[in-house]
Amino acid sequence: MNAPWKPAGAAQREPFAAYVCDDTTAELLRPIAAELGWSVDKVHKGGLRNAVQSLSVSASPQILLVDLAESGDPLNDINSLAEVCEPGTVVIAAGQVNDVRLYRDLIASGIQDYLLKPLHPDAMREAFGHAQAMLNAPKLAEANVDRPHCAIAVIGTRGGVGASTVATSTAWLLAEREKRTVALLDLDVHFGTGALTLDLEPGRGLTDAIENPSRIDGLFIERAMVKATEKLAVLSAEAPINAPLVTDGAAFYQLQEEMRAAFEATVVDLPRAMLVQHPHLISDIQAAVIVTDLTLAAARDTIRVLSWLKTNAPQTHLTVVASRVHPAAQLEISRKDFESSIERKIDFLIPFDQKLAAQAAKLGKPIAEAGKNTKTVAPLIELTRHVLNVGEELVATGSEGKATAKRKSLIGGFSALLSKRAKK
């Protein structure tokens, strides 16, 4: 629901509507609506259930207030509301349940705010002010439309080499330094750290996508993405470890498709096991960053991953990054011997900085943000600029068309699952 990426037609819709459960709330809202130049007739009785019924047959407003006081399952009911709301609707919920977990779940589902009843006029005015500011924020999908989309995958050769650190910092640098609208897709469904690194609640968007891939469309992306900064949004998960991942990969592919339409760059934190199980995920990736450390086991697995990518994704530009690199005397394998083993140069080397890593974790920030202007972050900045240039060059030379042809041959069996839902 609320998000800074909104359709151009949002301004033509009604500016406001409210669906409340009691006369007291309605009487409080009407004079505030009048102050803001909104029609008092748009304050309706009936709560969330009436909102779902009404909006299923009419356009949703720019700002929508729904009363959850009569809802037995607020989170599920909000998800039902999302089914009938158009992209760009900023939703404010009100309710009687004072529970921080419910508040977090509702915010993660995409609403702008959750207010506790009985409502206070000043709190209501403040919430509407924030909603109007959200509507007036720059639209991600419309910004810099002439720029080609850049898709980057970050793949660790082994666990613990720092691939997620590189992915999160690259996404942050693309958003903050390169001024691109960026989606970070963390495909480690059970143990992903994309949201954790940015001090965010992961929400249920990724697990919902896996369970219902045919529901994924622009509205789903708008509702499921968790906003980290004005230009960076994250889709991550912390699925229960007793719930195995059962998917044919259709959801992940469709997520990439929708992110391509809504953002200027996508960074996919792609676990190596997912790469092997779902090879179509790499088919539309322009640049793959292979993250390793300088150990014997990592050398073996870097050789294997590079070989797999050269065979299965010849259209993808490969960049090798050595991360968490200790001083030479502490290395298991020297850089020279490592490069000799993998039969290619290491493109970027990121030194190990325990102090900076600890500081970033405490602050809930990516290393690139916590360590601005440090020697540790300098190669991350160079890496980000490099992969962005690679992605733009590949699009400019037409290589993306070859990737698309290969993609179609790989995922022909998914066509039925990937059809977009039409709004009722």
Please give a handful of descriptors for the protein shown.
alpha/beta; 424 residues; Rossmann fold; disordered C terminus; 5-stranded parallel β-sheet
Structure description:
By secondary structure, this protein is α/β, with parallel strands linked by helices. The chain folds into two domains: 8-137, Rossmann fold, CATH 3.40.50.2300; 150-414, 3-Layer(aba) Sandwich (Rossmann fold). The protein has 17 helices and 13 strands. The chain has helices at residues 23-35, 47-55, 74-84, 100-109, 121-136, 163-176, 194-197, 205-211, 218-224, 250-262, 272-277, 296-312, 335-342, 354-363, 367-370, 378-396, 399-410, and strands at 16-20, 43-45, 63-67, 90-95, 113-116, 150-156, 182-186, 226-227, 232-235, 265-269, 287-292, 317-325, 348-351. Helix 3 (74-84) packs parallel to helix 4 (100-109) and helix 6 crosses helix 16 (378-396). The longest helix has 19 residues, at 378-396.
Outline the secondary-structure elements.
Layout: E1 16-20, H1 23-35, E2 43-45, H2 47-55, E3 63-67, H3 74-84, E4 90-95, H4 100-109, E5 113-116, H5 121-136, E6 150-156, H6 163-176, E7 182-186, H7 194-197, H8 205-211, H9 218-224, E8 226-227, E9 232-235, H10 250-262, E10 265-269, H11 272-277, E11 287-292, H12 296-312, E12 317-325, H13 335-342, E13 348-351, H14 354-363, H15 367-370, H16 378-396, H17 399-410
Parallel strand pairs: 1-2, 1-3, 3-4, 4-5, 6-10, 6-11, 7-9, 7-10, 11-12, 12-13
Antiparallel strand pairs: 8-9
Q: Give the overall shape, derived from the CA principal axes.
A: elongated
Uncertain parts: 1-11, 138-145, 401-424
Beta-strand fraction estimate? 15-25%
The first-level CATH class name of the largest domain: Alpha Beta
* Average predicted confidence as pLDDT: 84
Largest sheet: 8 strands, mixed
Could you give the distance between the termini? 17 Å
* Radius of gyration from the alpha-carbon trace, in angstroms: 23 Å
Number of domains: 2
Here the CATH topology of the largest domain equals Rossmann fold
Number of helices: 17
> What's the arrangement of strands in the largest beta sheet?
8-9-7-10-6-11-12-13
Helix content: 40-55%
Order of helices and strands: EHEHEHEHEHEHEHHHEEHEHEHEHEHHHH
Task: Determine the structural class based on helices, strands and strand pairing.
Answer: alpha/beta
